[in-house]
């Protein structure tokens, strides 16, 4: 078993709990429980902490480069328009596709790969309850998505991004069993909640730094809004002298 920061947190919480029992100190026991619960909550919500395993959230900071990633597609209403913009700008990105959407739109999935982008695993059903799934259920989700993407494109993903970026030890166990790296992000614009493209781009640029993995969405985003956001972001990144590279190139730079 690979030791993680979660194991360190757990051991420390247990030590505090044992001390509380030995000293019959209720307050210390409560502090131990709160410490454990807060640590778990932070680890679930913030992939950058890598509490449960090797969450890849950035590449090398030695070069001024970033990678763009798009979640929750393919979407027949918006993904083709995004692909056309990326083709015009000669930019390659990574799409984290939902397996059942790939199965529904195999032609779009095939186009993604044909045009030089990555199509990675974002689970099969993108369930809001994913973080509560057993290892067996997670393995089924990942393998179903792997099969759907492989059938549509002829290429098997090498990376997995959990729905909503939530994680726990079971996520990493299932991903390891499927031979997948778990990928997060270091900058996002909250584009599923914020409708104004300028605000989305400004949020991203405030968090941008060399090696950043940028999170956006092509699923369930209106095409015109998506294209406007990405155009604005590409222009801003170029003005800031950032090179845009594909996710695998960014991660390999480590």
Protein traits:
alpha/beta; 254 residues; 8 strands; 10 helices; six-stranded parallel beta sheet; two-stranded parallel ribbon; globular
Question: Could you please describe the fold and organization of this structure?
Answer:
The chain is an alpha/beta fold and 254 residues long. Helices cover 50% and strands 11% of the residues. The chain is built from 10 helices and 8 strands. The strands form 2 sheets. Strands 1, 2, 3, 6, 7 and 8 form a 6-stranded parallel beta sheet that branches. Strand 6, helix 8 (197-207) and strand 7 form a beta-alpha-beta unit. Helix 5 (106-114) crosses helix 6. The chain is globular, with a radius of gyration of 20 Å. The two termini are 24 Å apart.
**Largest β sheet strand count, sense and barrel closure:** 6 strands, parallel
Based on secondary structure, the structural category is alpha/beta
Quote the beta fraction. Answer: 5-15%
What is the approximate shape? Answer: globular
Output the number of helix runs. 10
List the secondary-structure elements in sequence, H or E. Answer: HHEHEHHEHEHEEHEHEH
Mean pLDDT: 93
Helix amount, in percent? 40-55%
The span between the termini is 24 Å
Please mark out the parts with pLDDT under 50 across 5 or more consecutive residues, or reply none: none
- According to DSSP, the number of beta strands is 8
Computed over alpha carbons, the radius of gyration is 20 Å
Write the layout of secondary structure elements.
Elements: H1 5-23, H2 26-45, E1 65-71, H3 79-89, E2 94-97, H4 99-104, H5 106-114, E3 118-121, H6 135-153, E4 159-160, H7 169-177, E5 181-182, E6 187-188, H8 197-207, E7 213-217, H9 223-239, E8 243-244, H10 247-252
Parallel strand pairs: 1-2, 1-7, 1-8, 2-3, 4-5, 6-7
Helix pairs in contact: 1-2, 3-9, 5-6, 6-7, 8-9
């Amino acid at each position: 078993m690979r030791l993680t920061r979660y194991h360190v947190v757990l051991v420390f919480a247990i030590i505090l709990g044992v001390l509380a029992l030995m000293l019959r100190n209720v307050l210390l026991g409560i502090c131990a429980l709160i410490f454990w619960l807060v640590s778990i909550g932070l680890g679930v919500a913030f992939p950058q902490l890598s509490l449960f395993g090797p969450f890849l959230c950035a590449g090398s900071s030695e070069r001024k480069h970033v990678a763009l990633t798009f979640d929750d597609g393919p979407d027949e209403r918006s993904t083709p328009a995004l692909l056309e913009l990326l083709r015009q700008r000669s930019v390659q990105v990574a799409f984290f596709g939902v397996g059942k959407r790939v199965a529904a739109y195999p032609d779009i999935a095939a186009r993604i790969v044909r045009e030089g982008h990555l199509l990675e695993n974002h689970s099969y059903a993108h369930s809001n309850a994913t973080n509560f799934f057993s290892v067996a259920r997670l393995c089924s989700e990942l393998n179903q998505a792997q099969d759907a993407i492989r059938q549509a494109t002829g290429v098997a993903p090498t990376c997995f991004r959990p729905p909503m970026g939530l994680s726990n030890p079971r996520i990493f166990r299932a991903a390891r069993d499927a031979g997948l790296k778990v990928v997060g992000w270091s900058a996002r614009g909250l584009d599923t909640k914020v409708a104004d493209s300028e605000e989305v781009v400004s949020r991203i640029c405030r968090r941008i730094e060399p090696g950043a993995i940028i999170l956006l969405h092509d699923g369930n985003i209106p095409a015109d809004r998506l294209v406007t956001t990405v155009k604005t972001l590409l222009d801003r990144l170029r003005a800031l002298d950032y090179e845009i590279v594909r996710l695998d190139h960014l991660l390999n730079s480590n």
